[in-house]
Amino acid sequence: MDRRSFLKKATLASGAAAATTLAAPAIAQDKRTLKLVTTWPKNFPGLGTGAQRMADRITAMTDGRLTVKLYGAGELVPPFECFDAVSTGTADMYHGAEYYWQGKHKAFNFFTAVPMGLTGNELDAWILNGGGQELWDELAAQFNIKPFMAGNTGVQMGGWFNKEINSLEDLKGLKMRMPGLGGEVLRRMGASAVALPGGEIFPSLQSGAIDATEWVGPWNDLAFGFYKITKFYYYPGFHEPGSGLSCGVNLDLFNSLSKADQAVVQNACMAENNFMYSEFNAKNGAALETLLNKHSVNLKQFPDEVFDAIGKVSEEVVAEVADTDELSKRIYDSYITARKNVGDWGRIAEQTYTLSRDRVLG
Length: 362
Prior knowledge:
The protein contains twelve helices and eleven strands. It has 362 residues and is α/β, with parallel strands linked by helices. The protein has two domains: 31-152 and 242-281, D-Maltodextrin-Binding Protein, domain 2 (3-Layer(aba) Sandwich); 159-240 and 296-334, Periplasmic binding protein-like II (D-Maltodextrin-Binding Protein, domain 2, 3-Layer(aba) Sandwich), CATH 3.40.190. β1, α2 and β2 form a beta-alpha-beta unit. The radius of gyration is 24 Å and the shape is globular.
């Protein structure tokens, strides 16, 4: 190789190296670390772990370009302040339950659960295919948030009580942890409803600050150890027939993302929505067996008199939300339409099938 040829190749190699050196900071600058706050204790089964799975999916699907760091309840902000933190940009995302934000707007209840409302399957049908997402977007945008479904616990239990509930009189004066519109139903039945984050329920039940609590279902309730304090475990949960959990993203941040990264966030949330719902359905049965056989829990169904009365009051409470404003009325009307249309099909299809299957197979 002659000297001139050598110098030419060396110059080209040097230029390529310089280009690589110059490009590196641009690549580094493109990476972002997003703060995800949750209303759940970190790594709590199903809820905390579901939020972590969602965070890990976003990080993995972007190959670390978007790295989501999760903060459990109270680590960065108190659990019920997650909404404000994301709205103002103190945090980038939250994972929680929309009915926790009913103090901001009562219509948020519809996107978690309302008494005598939609099951998990029905809620997905409304949000994804019945106009629910568009209405939710409109509501949340008022607070600078872009919302997504990101989990579901399925039909919840009615709760843990320190005494039997045999009549409507037994509800009067009862102090029970129950957030959302279900809490308002209890108040009208003569009980006292308290909204507590998950981590505060056990000590409140233990100290006698509350007489009863609902949380989720057997899997989560077993993990929290409520059976150590009270043995009366009631079903079904009128207040949360299919509790949708959500990921809220700061709207300014979301709009700053590329279309590809917006799609990553959306699909990571949808994946967790499906995974969590199947996980709760898979694990609740075994957990219930443990509660009944190992911990001698007394499983009881609400008497018809009690449940029927609760159902009537529930319809009144939910309907009143429609009077909040014009958007609330549109959300309510859309929700009730979905409950009828999807519910009619569910009774003909899944409900009839499962009842018939159980009759034949026992």
